[in-house]
Amino acid sequence: MGETPDLVAAVERSNDPDVRAEFDRRVREQAQRIRDDIRSGRLDTDEFAVGMELEAYAVDAADRLAPIPERVFERGGCAKELGVHNLEVNSAATVFDAAGVAEQADRIGASVDAAADALGDEALSPVLDAMWTVPPAEGTDAYLGAVEERDGVTVAANMRHHPRYVALDNEILERSGGEITLDVPGAHLAYPTILAESLATSIQPHLQIPSAERFPDYFNAALRTTGPILALSSNSPFLPADCYDDDPDVISATPHELRIHVFEKSINAGASRDEGKVRFPSDLEAATDVVDRVVADETYAPVLVDDADDDASPYRATLPEYDHKRGVHWRWVRGVIGGQPVGTEADGASLRIEYRPLPTQPTVRDTVSLQVLVVGLLRGLVAADHPLTDLPWTAARDCFYDAVDRGPDADLAWVTANGDRTADPDTVYDEVFAFARRGLRDAGLDAEVIDGYLDPVERRRGEGTPAAPSAWKKARVREAVDDGATLPEAIEAMQRDYIARAGGETVFADW
């Protein structure tokens, strides 16, 4: 209880009109410096670079969701996330060349292994998955709904008690009338906290773009790749098993990517997909649009920072309020400014794309394959002057949300290298992998090495195998229900099978 004054004070400060006014003033001032640096070329770099964030959750020996002790983060080299069961591992950026991509794969694997070792000392295990579905011992509703009121401030029991999280939770609760509701096929959930967002885990490949002038080309191409890539990687069709009654119609009705719905509905407080805080972003005309959008975004849970963050790059340390606001500027593709540039001696920062729509994959090899596909594809499309950006933005957005709902069966939208509009999956994926190879060759990777990286995801196109983990999950649940299990029993059985396979050496295409 000793932390109560800090948490209450954090919420009170974030609601103070003077704090908000000063925060917004600092954001505007820092944003102008960034715009000047973009226009002067200070954020241009010598190289492309790549990085990765990977989120996961922990389970106990019975495969039930479990909180992670603080000492795991001290020993395991992983970072905390919103829920006490969440963890994140990061691979620092490397130059986008053959050695850098290999180093990425090694770093991601080593980071996951280190986290697993630290968790293993506590009789816990990490799960590489996009949504937990075996409930904790007390049940999902009790776990997600446990809150305490402290001097008018809501504190969720199973949320990390970081002042930023608590202030953000209370701001969104106020905007949503005190309750976060999730209506999805087969379930209606309502909680007095945004902690339902901690159901979802994802991976976020990063691509540093050398030229600010060309940044919009990469960003706008990235938007048009989200639907086809998500359709190959969807991995979150079910909520925790105890959220459902025994209704087998849920199996076909539930979206393949509930993770997207959960995150949007947890944060957007009733706003539409095109207006909410979490949404599919519009095209960029100039790199400075990235900055303008952060400034224009609504301010949530502001914090005035007077001491530099020891973990921030020298450049980002001078932009603490802007960086804080950018952190809650949630878009499914996001421009990020301020990371230490890779592959250059410049004393500045970088411009990078954070590619956010992808669910956590079942294995490290699957994760690396998806990362390499994304960065190779974006580099290859722009290098080839591919006309994909001729695809209307509305078609790209609709394709993305169709992939959210229907996974590998989504209606795809694409423009071919010849300028023809197509929805044919074979044509789309032929180009996706061809231009990813083009980008990876331009980065200096040999053909055999490229094939090795892309193989785990590319083989999801094969006949006779579900084309995404979400389809595998739905099929396992359907089989169990047909054999007489209730829907909750079938979901738990599927998830235990998934957990037994996830994190191993066998990639999903071979399950």
From TrEMBL:
Pfam families: GCS2 (PF04107). It comes from the Archaea. GO terms for molecular function: ligase activity, forming carbon-nitrogen bonds. This is Glutamate--cysteine ligase. It comes from Haloplanus rubicundus. The lineage of its organism: Archaea, Methanobacteriati, Methanobacteriota, Stenosarchaea group, Halobacteria.
